[in-house]
Structures are given as structure tokens and as C-alpha cells.
Amino acid sequence: MTTESIMFRLRRANPVPQAPAGDQADLFARIISSPGDPRLAGRVRQRPLGNRRRALVVAFALGVAALLASTAFAVSHWITGDVVRPPVTKREYRDAQAQLTLPPGVTWPQFHITEPNSVTSRGGGGARAVGIAQNAWECYWVRAINRGDSAAEQRAYDQLKGLLANNVIVAPIGAPEGWTPLPLPKHPISVWAHDGGLNYVRDMYARAAAGDSHDLAQSCRVNAP
Amino acid sequence: MTHQLDRYAAEARFRAVFSHLGAVAAYARRRGMRDADAIAAEVMTIAWRRLADVPADDPRPWLYATARNLVLAEARRSSRAIAAESDRAEEVTPEPEVLELDPLLGSALRSLSRLDREALLLVAWEDLTPSQAARSLGINPAAFRVRLLRARRRLRAKLDEASSGRRRDPKTHLDMETT
Question: Residue B170 belongs to what domain range?
Fold first, then answer.
């Protein structure tokens, strides 16, 4: 038997020769209703645009620039960007730990920033802590559901509602990537794009509280740090 | 408005990625996943959230790599559950099963290292080119071609050995090859 015939034999033994086809419009709609990749916004903007559309975009950008340039502080913020080095981001992460609660038995993971010259938006360390706490409570909730611990389920739901209410801020429509509110709140916050993501997550928690925990379990797995 | 344009562009790009949903479900099913559709849905959710990482020109290697990670994670979870149920102290080696094949071929495939087996199956079942399969496994194409050739030879040797009735301890060979 040659190695070529081995491949032929393998191909013939394919247990699923044809990929299943079907209308998955519901799944597609459900996925795109969740928050997308925030990094993509900047890249997509770099695409060439038609003249008319480009003029509109430029006019909009000029309007935003004029608004920002209305104070000296805003001008400096616009030019330099409010970004910080890794030691500041790590300190923000540590400080946030004192203001957020993790589920029993969960500890804060180390925050590794491998590039010493990297910069992060101010508040990024706090945002990371909010994300970790959110995921930890989601997973705690899933475990509580699995073992039928309704008190723990309720506790997780309360904690997550509190996180969304107090530690998540939705950026204004058209805000640039890395937007942070000014002045920055003293408590840790996570800034989400204005794309319906917050409502989606609220709905997901409400569904889990009503007994449908499929998306919650998926979120727990997908967003693990 | 710019924000809306971004959103539409992202959705259009994701639609192209999403068209591979069936292929990803088939991948998971071929790796023995009972709930292959759930794995495929999870892969697509990850792809949407990390769309900037998904190669726009050829998303399949990325999608299969993500599916493989989920399949392995699922296998680890199942192994832990089985170990807990049977109250075994030792750790069970996580190994997703290849869907039921003819016994000779299935046994020969299982005797290969995970990476060798995956190299063969990505080309034979997922119909990837060696370059695409190399990207999916995160190794360079030249190294992949060498691995694929050796994997074919090992599989052939296993099949020849089994069909001629000779019996050897497969572990002796595999331990040296496992990566």
C-alpha cells in the first residue's frame, strides 16, 4: 500500500463526507446582536470611501474635533491621547481589586503585560478587572445552576446586575476606539461600544434567571481570561 | 453614522466567515463530538468577537484551530467527569475520539500522535491544502509537509502491521513520536 493510497483510503472513510447545510439565520442574528470586535472599527474606517460619503465623514470628524478643541485640556487630550504605561495599568488593576468582589474560591489572575513600551487607555487596568469579575460571576452562576444552588444563582445574578449598573459605561455614538469618560470615575469601569451589547448581556442574564442558561454558559467559556 | 458603517462592514465580513458554519460542524462531528452544532455555534461566536483576528481571505484554518481547542477542552471536561464518577485517582489523558471508522483504520489512527493524526485528517477530511493545514496547526508549511509525509508512512506501517497479523506494542514507537 502506498502513502497515496493511504490518503485515498482515509478520504473514503470520511464519516461526514458532506458538510451539513441549513438555514441558520437565527443563529447568525443572535451572534451579531452581541458585542462585536472593537478593534475592527478603526480598521474599517481606513477603507476607501466614496467622495460624498468621505465628505460627510470629514465634516463629522471636523465637528467632533471642534467640540474637543473647545478647551485647552481637550486639545491636549486629542493630540496626545490619554494613554498610560504598563506600571500605571497594573496599579489600576490592583486598585480595582479592592473595589470589586469575586465569587468564593476565585482569586485574581496575574496581569502580564509582555511589551514594556506598550500603552493602554487610562482606566484599562480597571476595565480588565471588571471583565474578570464579570466572567468569574458568570461561571459561578453556571456552576450554581449545575448543582441546583438557587441561593448562589441569585447572588451571582445580583452581582452581575450590580456590575452592569455601576461598572459598565456605554461610549457615545461615533466615539473613537479607546474612548474614556472625562473625568474618569474613581471606581473601575469598562467602556463598551454603543452597539447594543449592554442590552444583549442584560437579556442574556434575564434569560438565565428565567431558566435558559445556554448563552450564559457559552459566555462563561468564551470570555475566560 | 461612521459607527453604523463599521457595523455593516463587520456584519458583511462576518457573513462570509459564517458561511463555513456547516464545515465547522462537520469538523466537530468527525472528531466525535456529539453536540457538534453547539461547538460550531461557539466557534462562530468567538469569530464574531475576535473578527479582527480571523483572516478575511481564508478563514477556515482559523476556524478549525478554534474548533480544535474547543473539542480538546470538551474532551478534558469529559475525562474529568468520567474520572470523578469512577473515583479514579489518576488523571485520565484527554483525547477526543475520532468518529467511528472501520476498526482497523480507527485503531491505526488512534495509535498516531495527536498532531500527526490531525495533520492527516485536516488534509484528508477537511480538504485543506498543506499550507492551510499548517496555518491551522500553527506550524510552518515546510515542517507540515515533512510531518504529513511521516504521518502517512506511520499510518501505512500500522495498517500493514495490523493486516499482516503481526503484533507489536504500539506504545514503544509512539512515545518517541508524540509531540
Answer: 101-179
Residues B59 and B129 in one domain: no
Q: In this complex, do A18 and B26 lie within 8 Å of one another by their Cβ atoms? A: yes
Number of domains in chain B: 2
Q: Are residues B84 and B14 in the same domain?
A: yes
Q: Do A44 and B10 touch (CB under 8 A)?
A: yes
For residue A133, give the C-alpha cell: 469579575
Closest CA in chain A for residue B98: A15
- Cβ <8 Å between A44 and B6: yes
Q: Are residues B74 and B107 in the same domain?
A: no
Distances in Å between the Cα of B105 and the Cα atoms of B108, B150, B177 are 5, 17, 19
Show which of B97, B131, B150 is a domain's final residue. B97
> Which cell goes with B11?
456584519
Choose the mutation target among A4, A6, A30 for the interface with B, i.e. most B CBs under 10 Å.
A6
Write out residues 42-101 of A within 8 Å (CB-CB) of B: 43-45, 47, 53, 56-57, 60
Average pLDDT over residues A131-147: 91
Angstrom distances, CA of residue B131 to CA of A7, B52, B124: 17, 21, 14
Nearest to A178 by CA among A127, A111, A114, A110: A127
CB contact under 8 A, B125 and A11: yes
Mean pLDDT by 10 residues, chain B (179 residues): 68 92 93 90 94 92 95 83 61 51 84 92 93 92 92 90 63 35
**Does one domain contain both B11 and B93?**
yes
Query: Is there a contact between A22 and B22 if contact means CB atoms under 8 Å apart?
Result: yes
Interface confidence (ipTM) of the complex: 0.78
pLDDT score recorded for residue A86: 85
Cα dist. B54→A2, A219, B48 in Å? Answer: 37, 19, 9
- By the CB < 8 Å criterion, does A3 face chain B? yes
Task: Name the domain boundary from B42, B63, B97.
Answer: B97
CATH number where B145 lies: 1.10.10.10
Partners of residue A193 in chain B, C-beta under 8 Å: 3
B93 and B106 housed in the same domain: no
